[in-house]
Amino acid sequence: MHTDPAITSFQDEVALAPGAESLRACYHCGTCVSRCIVPWRDEAFNPRRVFHKALLGMREAVFDDMTVWNCTACDLCYAGCPQEVHISDVIGALRDLAVEAGYTSPLETVVVDPILCSGCGTCVELCPYDALSLAVREGRRVSTVDHNRCMGCGGCVAACPNSAIGGGSFADQPVLEQLVERLGRNE
């Protein structure tokens, strides 16, 4: 918890977090939800609801809400917000506060095989979430993943020239099985 005297509630903590300054301007109209593509894969995704929880001081409920972890920061919502709330910035601030409080992303993320990684940086430049970075490990440059930033989009998996990125459902076999299953449905 913060020791700043200006912070007397969770609402204050969120509003003072970088990126969340506009939280109190949201009047929960739902335009963000109507413009968002994430509810197509997660019906529970709802920035309006998570903002309301934040304003009510429901810290744990906010951090446990998958909306905090599933926002892709595409900003389709921002263009339609009548209050000009930069929704993805507020959600990013909520995610940062959750990580600061010890929460970790429940999303499946990629894994880098340091033996196969050449440290070329292709994945780092490609990642729209800044989840990948280059680090020196055992005297070599290799890519590393910040699992709290990775959205599991798989773009880095496809772009890696050495097939050094994968893991879980990002491995070749599960992807091939999904393709075969989907192709079978189209017959």
Could you outline the blueprint of secondary structure elements for this entry?
Elements: H1 10-16, H2 31-35, H3 47-55, H4 59-64, H5 67-70, H6 76-80, H7 87-100, E1 111-112, H8 122-126, E2 132-137, E3 140-145, H9 155-159, E4 165-166, H10 172-185
The number of E-state strands comes to 4
Cα shape: globular
How does the helix and strand content classify structurally?
mainly alpha
* Measured distance between first and last alpha carbons: 56 Å
Beta-strand portion reads 5-15%
Describe the structure.
With 187 residues, this protein is mainly alpha-helical. Helix content is 40%, strand content 9%. The chain has helices at residues 10-16, 31-35, 47-55, 59-64, 67-70, 76-80, 87-100, 122-126, 155-159, 172-185; strands at 111-112, 132-137, 140-145, 165-166. It has a two-stranded antiparallel sheet. A two-stranded antiparallel sheet has the order 2-3. A hairpin with a 2-residue loop joins strand 2 and strand 3. The longest helix is centred in the middle third of the chain and has 14 residues, at 87-100. The N and C termini lie far apart (56 Å).
